[in-house]
Model the fold of this input.
Amino acid sequence: MKNLITLLLTILIASTTVYGQETKEKQLSNADQFSAKAGTLIEKQFIDIGQVKGVQVKVLKLKDLNDGTTKTALRLEYEYKSSYSTDTKIASLDSDEIEGLIKSIKNLQANVFTSTRDTYTEVTFKSRTGFEAGAYYDTGKSKWTAYMQLSKYDSKSSVFLNTDDFSTFLTLIEQAKTKM
Done:
């Protein structure tokens, strides 16, 4: 009987621990899901648009060669270099998210960067895959710092931008949108 109670308590503790942990699975974009379809032939075209602060902006065009269906996405690539290795960080934004990103960047430029705050403040745009772009207000420096983070749980995918870089990023996104 004592062994049964010990077994049940162990199972209860283990299931509570596993259930309570936050999952860090990366959510796939619609384009990533499309390209991962099994049993089909997918063509991928990578159209270079430009780069800002080491982040390459590309348009990804996907075509199912068996049935002719297509998808497009904005692809951002950043090569993170440490003293021991390099790693490429990649973010994909579906074509239906691009207009929201453009609108958010323009709002940041027109309304946020020109303002001040009394407390530390963050303003962010997030995509369904975890890409984030935005800014935070540092009260000690009395200024906004813009950034983008390509992967949700990866601080090594963060790139800090000044306002000129942010304008360049907007221009590249608008160019990419015309090629989608």
User: Anything to note?
Assistant: DSSP finds four helices and eight strands in the chain. Helices lie at 2-20, 30-35, 95-112, 163-178. Strands lie at 42-52, 55-64, 70-81, 86-94, 121-126, 132-138, 143-149, 158-161. The longest strand covers residues 70-81.
